[in-house]
Design a protein that fits this description.
Elements lengths: L1 E4 L23 H5 L15 E7 L5 E7 L1 H5 L3 E5 L10 E2 L6 E2 L5 E2 L5 E7 L2 H9 L2 E6 L6 H5 L23 E9 L2 H5 L4 E9 L11 E6 L5 E5 L4 H12 L6 E5 L15 H11 L3 E4 L2 H7 L6 E9 L5 E11 L7 H10 L10 E8 L14 H19 L3 H7 L20 H10 L33 E14 L8 E11 L2 E7 L9 H13 L3 E4 L17 H28 L5 H4 L2 E4 L2 E4 L4 E4 H5 L4 E8 L18 E14 L4 E12 L6 H20 L33 E5 L15 H18 L5 E2 L3 H5 L5
Parallel strand pairs: 1-29, 2-15, 11-30, 13-14, 17-18, 21-22, 28-29
Antiparallel strand pairs: 2-8, 3-7, 3-9, 4-8, 5-6, 10-18, 11-16, 12-13, 12-15, 16-17, 19-27, 20-21, 20-26, 23-24, 24-25, 27-28
């Protein structure tokens, strides 16, 4: 990893081992690679039952009747629940719009919708009992695209909508609409020497986390329930779970269990409510674990999209205007669609300076699978389209595609289409320069290896389908922009409780937050922050639960920024309280207690000149300092619903990629040889973790470029490939070399100057791969993923 930039000034604790800026190892890393880590699916209770969900076999239908008699009569079955058994007046939930029924009532709106629940003494008994439930469906026509959703006589996916978005959408089957208008795109188009238009299709991607949805609900003596679950946002779950159980929030106690990946797919409720309902009905602990097939129906996916773009440029390469319409398929329920629309629209211009824009983004209600949060959150789809447009413009103008992007690149001070100034470093041109300047890998390495040639280096790999005939190299570039944190006026805060005390003769800090550790490394960073701010080496991370205030969601690249900021803030206050104890005890012995800048380093109180005043053990003795505080980033504001103007985002992040591919043009096979990336991270709190996040995001972008897509039958709205046999994700054999170039240009508004990093590399890796394939084949390729038939011209109509 190469790093460049201005170091962020860290005075407190900068000499403490294992603090900010070091590549400390993850506390859960060894356990995970040795198979000893306890994931949520590993939880066990001595007398627990097993829960099973019965899901709809059709995508849109009236429910005429449900017969549970055979299931109830089976030995070992403790409970069978349907909508009529729900205990509370509230029977729906949702992140923003409460439109999702706990169990289907009256009709089902998508393939795989939960209809009934079973609890039994063995998972196979539960499965067989669920299979005995008889449901009489009267199938209805399916809504699957914009035309069928917005027709004047279209069937309404949700009748009688009363949510706050309904007043500004042109059709009830549109969840949310966000226009952005700045300048005059029509007048600007008249100044363009070149105009290019494009229609792009982005497929439905699955988060494909390896740990399936699972959890354990245990009834409490006070009539409440304890839920141990893998999730991304404990307190959001709590606010949705408690009302449908008919319980106050304090009687629903949630603890995070081991999470096997998330990427947005655990931001919505899956099995949480169902497990609690069964536990409360039976009075016994209930465990639910989805198999892979059910997992494909048990969580939302990335929105598939149609994107319509027009760009203009002058003959010297300056962009004149941009018009676009982005149509996102939200599926049967709203989930996070309104926020995804906001992201897609506000970031649709990309990291470029364009003064005149006319943008519209909408999300549809359809009978396709529900879609919501996934890494990149609306910006991924837009980046795929606007980067294809940049290549088209560059080609039409005869300008190098990187130079064309650099010519139009935004920088600090650029005004976004929403009217918001970019008020921190935006090194777009420099990121592109770095990936372009990197030496290219040798061409056709397999051709010069003779008998030692590794077939895995060829397109098709171990399938041994080619030996180099018709293989052509291509190189492509892309750059993207992603917001960090929650936006549009959302009260985005986090809470941290920090305790400082002496344990076993040495000072120890305990950090307690509700942050969901889903693999991003937050538990590592929190310990590093505590060491830095409190000057101790021993830091304990308390398990995440709802007994502490909310940490918000582990999404939007926000946790290191926001919960890290909360930990830093609370540690600072704890440090001052500890120093005040020291002043009270020892202030009369040394004037520096009153006059010097005091720091905590190496378990001691020291002056900024390095003089040791006291050991922390002597300062604290039997006292403990504990504080729980909230921390917020700068406020944002909602986008205007007519013009899209507003300071909607708190921070932006940027990454650029160069993809090198080798394509067998006869067979349509693609080998990605290298995916080089440059990214500005503000400050690398843990450099090793930073590189891992960038490489992981890059790999997910590669997946949707060449293989990942949930296939939905357009006639029935049924999912065709709900398995890892038919839904393919990159393995180590598909993943190329990913060299990473890290810039550290501090954002003065953020803790330590850091910048959220997790999502940005997912944006530009996809269009870079597509650009490289286009470069190799000369094909336009306006959809993703690219399949062999798209390259060979054998796609069926």
């Amino acid at each position: 990893m190469a790093t460049t930039g201005t170091p962020t000034n860290i005075t407190q604790g900068s000499k403490t081992k294992g603090g900010i800026g070091e590549s400390t190892l993850r506390p859960d890393g060894t356990l995970k690679v040795t198979g000893e880590f306890a994931y949520s699916s590993d939880m066990w209770h001595e007398d627990m039952l097993w829960g099973q969900t019965l899901r709809s076999t059709v995508a849109h239908a009236e429910i005429r009747s449900i017969d549970i008699s055979e299931a109830v009569a089976m030995p070992g079955v403790y409970a069978v629940l349907t909508y009529d058994d729900l205990p509370a007046e509230m029977k729906h939930y949702g992140l923003e719009i409460q439109d999702t029924p706990v169990l289907a009532h009256g009709k089902v709106r998508h393939h795989g919708e939960p209809v009934a629940l079973v609890a039994a003494d063995h998972p196979e008994t539960a499965r067989r009992a669920a299979a005995k439930i008889k449901i009489d469906y009267a199938e209805l026509p399916v809504i699957t695209d914009e035309a069928s959703a917005t027709a004047p006589d279209a069937i309404l996916v949700h009748e009688g909508r009363d949510d706050h978005h309904i007043g500004h959408v042109p059709h009830p089957n549109i969840v949310h609409r966000q226009p952005i208008v700045r300048g005059n795109a029509d007048e600007a188009a008249e100044r363009a020497d070149v105009i290019v238009k494009g229609e792009y299709t982005f497929g439905m991607q699955d988060q494909a986390f390896l740990g399936p949805e699972s959890g354990l609900a245990v009834p409490s003596e006070d009539g409440g329930v304890e839920l141990y679950v893998a999730t991304q946002w404990l307190h959001s779950d709590l606010k949705q779970i408690a009302p449908v159980l008919g319980l106050p929030e304090e009687k629903v106690r949630m603890t995070l269990s081991g999470v096997g990946g998330a990427f947005g797919g655990r931001e919505d409720i899956s099995m949480q409510i169902h497990a609690c309902l069964l536990a409360l009905r039976t009075g016994k602990p209930v465990k639910i674990v989805y198999n892979r097939f059910e997992s494909f129906f048990g969580h939302v996916h990335r929105h598939p999209a149609k994107l319509y773009y027009e760009h203009g440029a002058t003959k010297d390469g300056k962009l004149t205007h941009m018009k676009c319409k982005i149509v996102l398929d939200g599926g049967a329920y709203a989930s996070a669609s309104p926020a995804v629309v906001g992201n897609a629209s506000s970031l649709s211009v990309g990291p470029y300076v364009i003064d005149d824009v006319d943008i519209e983004a909408i999300a549809l209600y359809t009978n396709n699978p529900p879609c919501g949060a996934m890494r990149g959150f609306g910006a991924v789809q837009a980046c795929f389209a606007y980067e294809a447009q940049m290549d088209k413009l560059a080609a039409k103008l005869g300008i190098d595609p990187v130079e064309f992007r650099q010519l139009n690149a935004m920088e600090q001070g650029t005004i976004m289409p929403t009217g918001q100034p970019v008020d921190s470093p935006a090194p777009v041109a420099e990121l592109l320069r770095r990936v372009k300047a990197r030496p290219l890998p040798p061409e056709q390495q397999w051709a010069t290896a003779g008998e030692q040639a590794d077939v895995r280096a060829l397109p098709g790999g171990l399938s041994n389908t080619t030996h180099g005939e018709g293989v052509v190299r291509g190189v492509g570039y892309a750059v993207g922009i992603k917001n960090v944190g929650f936006s549009e006026g959302f009260d985005d805060y986090s809470t941290a409780k920090v305790r400082m005390e002496v344990v076993g003769g040495e000072p120890v800090a305990t950090v307690h937050t509700a942050m969901a550790e889903v693999g991003q490394g937050g538990v590592t960073v929190h310990a590093q922050i505590a060491r830095t701010e409190l000057g101790v080496t021993q830091v304990t991370i308390h398990p995440a639960d709802t007994q502490v205030g909310s940490a918000g969601s582990t999404s939007a690249s926000r946790q290191t920024y926001v919960t890290g900021g909360a930990v830093k803030n609370t540690c600072e206050h704890v440090r001052e309280a500890v120093l005040e104890i020291g002043r009270r005890k020892f202030g009369s012995y040394h004037p520096a207690w009153a006059t010097a800048e005091l720091l905590l380093e190496g378990g001691k109180v020291v002056t900024d000149g390095g003089e040791v005043l006291a050991d922390l053990v002597d300062v604290l003795e039997d006292e403990a300092v504990e504080l729980e505080l909230e921390w917020r980033h700068r406020p944002t504001e909602a986008f205007d619903l007519r013009t899209g103007q507003g300071n909607g985002h708190v921070q932006y992040s940027f990454a650029a990629h160069r993809a090198v591919v080798e394509v067998d043009t006869e067979l349509g096979l693609v080998k990605v040889v290298e995916l080089a990336v440059a990214q500005d991270v503000g400050k690398a709190l843990n450099p090793l973790s930073v590189v891992g996040q960038i490489q992981g995001g890059t790999t997910q972008g590669l997946g949707v470029a060449v293989m990942e897509e949930i296939i939905v039958d357009p006639k029935t709205a049924k999912v065709r490939n709900p398995s890892f046999t038919d839904y393919l994700i990159p393995t180590i054999l598909d993943t190329p070399t990913i060299p990473v170039d890290v810039l550290e240009l501090a954002d003065e508004h953020a803790p330590y100057g850091l910048r959220g990093i997790g999502e940005a590399p997912t944006l530009s890796s996809t269009p870079a791969v597509l650009a490289a394939i286009r470069n190799a084949t000369g094909l336009e390729l306006n959809r993703t993923p690219v399949r062999p038939e798209h390259l060979t011209g054998t796609e069926s109509s």
